[in-house]
Amino acid sequence: MAKHNNPRRSLNLTNRSVLTRTCLLLFFTLLFPIPLHAVGDVQGVSPSLSPGQWAHYALSGNEAEGVVDALFTVQRVDGANVTFSDLDTFSDRHTTTDTVIVSVSTGPTVPSSGEYFVISPQKQVGDSVYPGDPVHYPNLPIQDIAARPYVSASRQIAHVHAQNSSQVATTTTTTFEDFYWDDSTGIFTEIVKSLNGVVVLHVVMSSTSLWQPDLPPDPLLIPTAVVSLFSAVVIGVLLVGRYRKKAK
Questions:
Q1: What is the pTM of this model?
Q2: Neighbours of 96 (CB within 10 A)
Q3: Can you list the domains of the chain with their CATH numbers?
Q4: What is the C-alpha separation between 82 and 100, in angstroms, rounded?
Q5: Which tens digits make up the pLDDT trace of 147-190?
Q6: Burial classification of residue 179, based on how many CB atoms lie within 10 Å of its CB (0-12 exposed, 13-18 middle, 19 or more buried)
């Protein structure tokens, strides 16, 4: 006789299987909850800076407008927004203080300001500098990430090379700008702006609280290694000589 399947039994088994999977999913969700900030991390719009962190920058060039040093200090981190205080010191020693707010999602308050002082960390080549504003920054993707020295430390640095052209009457002016950001913190490390082959603005990080300088190599490390290797060779020669004597 042919064996007939019971539809009700199959349905019950299916419902029981779905219920079991649902219960397991809920169990693992409760056991390993996904932190809310992980969503922001996936979208690349989470700052990696904390209030009190600071960085000094040395400035030169005509467009520095007399500023020779700038101290950026993180005042507040609110969602994707980072608020800096900017203490500028001029060549005649007078100072001015300003407040700058940059969103790592949408960029500076005025998109054309060039104040790209921070981006979200851990960018990949091809990622948009500010993914939340596809209107002003589609032509500013991260172009390369490489090790560069800043403040006596080798850092992984994200880089963008930008080009701006403007025309007055029949004269076209082209400005080239290079922006560099520390990959793990997102803070800017250098800005180079050139016009007609001449650097008109150079801003480079000179000191910071964000990382420690790399430790120099131990001067005794190489001599110690040489002595250890020499000792090992001598011991090996003695052991081989003793073995050969015994063999005879």
A1: 0.70
A2: 10
A3: 42-208 (2.40.360.20)
A4: 8
A5: 999 999 999 999 999 987 776 677 778 899 999 999 999 999 99
A6: buried
